Amino acid sequence: MKVERHIVGSLIRDVGDELGVFSLEVYRKISPRKATLLQGLPGLGLVGKLAVEMLIEHFSAEPVARLYSEYMFLPDGNVGVGISNGKELSYITIDFYYAATSSGEELILMTAQTQPVNWGQYRTLQKVLDLARSWRVRRVVSLGGFAMDRVGEEREAYVAASSKALLREFTKCGAKVLRGGYVTGACGLIVGLAAISDFESATLLGVTHGKYPDPRGAKAVIDVLDKMYKIDFRTEIVERKIKEVEKTLKLTREMKEIVSRRGEAIQRPEYPYTV
Question: The whole model's pTM is what?
Answer without folding.
Answer: 0.86
